Amino acid sequence: RSAYDASEKGAVMVEWNHHRIERPCRAGEGGEADHAGPSTTLLRLIREEPVHERTILDVGCGSGRLTFALAKESGRMIGIDRSNEVIERARQRAAALRLDHVTFHCHDAETINYRDLGPISLVVANLCMSNEILRRAAAALSPGDFIVFAAFHLDQWKESGKVSRYAYGEGQVETALSEAGFEPVYLGVEREVLSLATPDEGLAYLEASGLSGKWKADGRRQGFVTYLQGGGRELTVRARVIVKARRG
Known about the structure:
single chain, alpha/beta, 9-stranded mixed β-sheet, 9 strands
């Protein structure tokens, strides 16, 4: 599959970059698993821009993981999240680090007008994306400005039999970007898949990762058990769509 990057020189085909890591599950693994950290590709794509000159909006910032990764090199950073709790933690950390150019606000990314936050010249997001967020970002950015984000791919935890409503497939990403008025310059999918020697190994990973209780409550654990009982021996612990797109 491919999308098109419309530039001054004409339409440029943008191919999907697929990167897949397969490895065996190691005994005791899971306790240190970080399923939400920003990928090196995401950070690289953001840093391709002169971030020290930009006012960057981090959408769905949580406690500021991506914000703080960029804070020391950015001009101004604004983080928004709808959770008062995580925003307060982020504010406290920013104050402790004396990052006066970094501010956090409690807002729902799917309802706020981003222009109310002041001029924005770059929008970033890590695992918080929707068609509505894309539309609102496009409305706030000027032509030529960029959005760079990572979203869940449809393959994330696919072995549980359920897909997040916030997950995207390649075609869905292309359509959403086009409808919002963005032109892709980078499209990628990154996967990390564990191979499981036994069903017990997969369940032990869930326990060590702290996922078992949550999956039991929403039915994903039973779906995973059914998959394992049917002979399945993989677990997609990380599947991300990584995108950089220009406002048309």
